[in-house]
Amino acid sequence: MASVALRWSELDRDQLKRHLPEAVVIIPVGATEQHGPHLPTATDALIAEAVADSAATAAAGRSGRSLIVAPTVAFGASDHHLAFGGTLSLSPETLLALICDLLRSIAAQGGQRTVLLNGHGGNVGVCHAAAAAAATRFGLSLAHLDYWRLAGTEGEPPVPGHAGEFETSMVMAIRPDLVGPRERRAQVPETLAVHGVDLHSEIVWRRIDGFTDCPELAEASDGKRRLEGIVGRTADRLVELASVL
User: Are 74 and 27 in contact (CB under 8 A)?
Assistant: First the structure.
């Protein structure tokens, strides 16, 4: 079967039945949550979907398998953003059940290989748990990929932050019409951190007003460069995963 990039939502049941046994299904997982006063609430879903679509297209000719991009999961585990407004959140337990049900559905129709392409930090643990559970329960071979972990080029921050310069530049490259005015911060609040430890605290989010660093420094050209780099590296991973899953 030819190596092509396809969208699940554009295929009929017979086409999916033919492709699924040999294909890799990519599920973009995002969120609908506040991203400061300047970015759309769909930021995480927008970026995850853009990376998935572009990477699948770039990898298709090299993957040896069909790459099917499923509809984006637009809601994530975002309870820590509820206090700021603009957020539609699932509890971690609900998101875990939702992703497991999607994976169960893929397996029930003959699918064997799935990649969870995550675009939201609050989903990391849930995606990891869902992949581990589905591999055992449904016999799927799975991979979990957080797109921003492939952004580590020279000069890039190790952690891109939330609704700061990094994400703002990415949205400027994907949907510039959705980026609002960005006022310069008089001072960036210091983020509490302990090296090598993940902190979870409502106090931290309130101190930084729900967004990090300096979004006013974002440039569309930087976002385009970052997006191209992430897409290229994701495509390389999809090619490799198609041979090992």
Answer: no
